[in-house]
Amino acid sequence: LLVIVLFKEIRQLIDTEMSATPVTAVSEYPVVSLASSLDIPLKASEEVVSIDLENDLPEDPADLKTLLVEESSDKEHWLAIATAYCNQGMVRESIRLIEMALKVFQGQQSAPLHTFLTWAYLRLVKDNTESVNSRENQLTQAEVHLKDAIGYDPTWIGNMLATIDLYYQRGQYDKALETSELFVKGIHAEDLRNGRQSKPNVMFLLLRA
After folding, report:
1. Cα(70)–Cα(47) distance, rounded to whole angstroms?
2. What is the pLDDT of residues 11-54, one digit of tens each?
3. What sections of the chain are H helices per DSSP?
4. Integer Cα distance of 80 and 76 in angstroms
5. Interaxial angle between packed helices 91-101 and 75-87, expressed in degrees from 0 to 180 and rounded to the nearest 10
6. CA-to-CA distance for 110 and 78, rounded, in angstroms?
7. Among 45, 82, 135, 200, which residue's CB has the most CB atoms within a 10 Å radius?
8. Residue among 95, 43, 39, 45 nearest 69 (CA)
9. Per DSSP, what are the bridge partners of residue 51?
10. Torsion-angle region of 22 (φ positive above 0: left; ψ -120 to 50: alpha; else: beta)
11. Percent of residues in the chain assigned helix, strand, coil, to nearest 5
């Protein structure tokens, strides 16, 4: 999404039964619920550095890079901080932080980072109502990172949803609908193979609305 990130909320929505109330549109992505602080363990001792995710995020995410790199912090820590930036509307700062993380985590380990960047750029697209050129650049960046994410994890639900949303943001509505229907059929087929009862997938239904 994931590990952490906005995909934690997406996973919860995916397993939710549709209520009787009709839903016709989604105006924005959900805010991910996080702890108010994050403890970074220090390698040289049993102590931790606590980061206030609500009130003390630096304006420049590079200020956190030295701590995260020197303490060999898990990518989940990078993602948690980036998500906190997003929750505060600092999407560009979250992108900068995860771009730094890509220099630390590579190969298969970078998969959730690319997925995060895909959704972050898609969020910028949704917020961009003025500049056509910057919107196109943001869509291109989202597509680049989505391709990398799919290369590592083609069947993960966060990447599936991002594929549909990317088509939608490009105005390729028929393609978005066609892709969502293919994904739904694939999920139902997997449920059948595993002996599970398929539930209405709320996220796909919202995207198809």
Report:
1. 14
2. 344 333 333 333 333 445 555 667 789 999 998 888 999 999 99
3. 7-14, 65-70, 75-87, 91-101, 111-127, 132-152, 157-169, 173-193, 202-208
4. 6
5. 170
6. 12
7. 82
8. 43
9. 38
10. beta
11. 60, 5, 35
- Residue appearing with tokens 């917020």: 127
Q: How far apart are CA 24 and CA 166, in angstroms?
A: 19
Amino acid (1-letter code) at residue 106: Q
Closest to 201 (Cα-Cα) out of 184, 182, 181: 184
132-152 and 111-127 helices cross at what angle (nearest 10)? 160
The total number of residues shown for the chain amounts to 209
As a whole number of Å, the end-to-end CA separation of the chain is 22
Q: Specify whether the CB–CB gap between 203 and 10 falls below 8 A.
A: yes
pLDDT of residue 179: 86
pLDDT of residue 6: 41
| Prediction pTM value | 0.78
